[in-house]
Design a protein that fits this description.
Blueprint (H helix, E strand, L loop, with lengths): L1 E8 L8 H15 L5 H4 L14 E7 L2 E9 L3 E6 L5 E6 L2 E3 L3 H13 L10 H10 L2
Antiparallel strand pairs: 1-2, 2-3, 3-4, 4-5, 5-6
């Protein structure tokens, strides 16, 4: 069973490891197709359209060990990576979870429900809630 833990607001690249900074670059590219450095993605310039507003970073742990690292940004978007890597395994698009691996999707979806990160109006919410409720 996976759980979202250790939520952090990210406002500066100084908060990030080199791998996390690269994850942030990939988040931005997934969001808008632009290949921009991490510091541009976190710019405080209100005119900078490349900013990933409301940027949060979570650890996703299972059995006490980090399994995934999750980014949430722009209020309804996100990207989930294998922990410590730049391998993106899932995305959050308009608040909904998108994942090609169905087992991983159920694991992450149930964890999002438990952490109140998936809106109850999402079309997959009930399916993920049932998995979350069935997991000891």
């Amino acid at each position: 069973m996976a759980d979202f833990t250790n939520r952090r607001q990210i406002t500066s690249v100084t908060q990030l490891t080199p791998v996390q900074a690269e994850q942030l670059v990939l988040c931005g590219a997934a969001y808008d197709g632009e290949d921009l450095p991490a510091d541009r993605r976190l710019s405080s310039d209100p005119e900078d359209e490349s900013v990933l507003h409301f940027c949060e970073f979570w650890d996703v742990v299972a059995d006490g060990s980090p399994v995934y690292e999750a980014w949430f940004y722009q209020a309804d978007s996100g990207s989930i990576f294998l922990a410590g890597t730049t391998k993106m395994v899932a995305e959050i698009i308009q608040c909904g979870l998108e994942c090609a691996d169905k087992e991983r999707e159920l694991e992450l979806g149930a964890a999002m429900v438990r952490a109140s990160l998936l809106p109850s109006g999402d079309s997959s919410f009930e399916r993920f809630r049932q998995v979350a409720d069935a997991t000891p």
